[in-house]
Amino acid sequence: VPLNLNYIASVLPNSFYDKHKFAAITIRIDNPTCTVLLFSSGKLVLTGSQSWYKCLHASLKIVEMLRAYIIGVDFHVEDIVVQNIVGNAIIDLQGNRTLNLERMYNEQCSKCTFQKSLFPGLIFRPDNSPVVLLCFESGKVVITGGKCVEDIEIGWRRLWPVV
């Protein structure tokens, strides 16, 4: 039986739901800080957790909240699956230097996408890696798409020689 998202959003604190914009309730929680999407199927998507344990803690906190506000529904955590780990790094560029994204693209064009007029960063896809690295002239790098911390570390190690 699908959950009544209109009702849940009306009684659950720190929640927002507009079925015309998105098919889930957005719930913001503190301690641990994260944003939770609750779908009518009962599935949760948690974003912004700093670790697996904080994700678990947030999941249990949401279930506790749902049990307190929604009577007659058995809420529980069945499984937790990590879908995407995001990391970030800052390359220390001495002085007023910037990352030369044009050079990186020219040297690694088979692994890169760079169209400055569409997106200011270079998109680097290392061989045999699930991660994508977004590199910016400022030296900031966003690493996304990993299923574990090791994926993030391997992606970073493959980018470093290119920098």
TrEMBL record:
InterPro entries: TBP (IPR000814), TBP_dom_sf (IPR012295)
Pfam families in the record: TBP
Key word Metal-binding present: no
Keywords: DNA-binding, Transcription
One MF term in the entry's GO annotations: DNA binding
Keyword Lipid biosynthesis: no
Biological-process GO terms, alphabetical: DNA-templated transcription initiation
Superkingdom assignment: Eukaryota
Protein family according to the UniProt entry: Belongs to the TBP family.
Full protein name: TATA-box binding protein
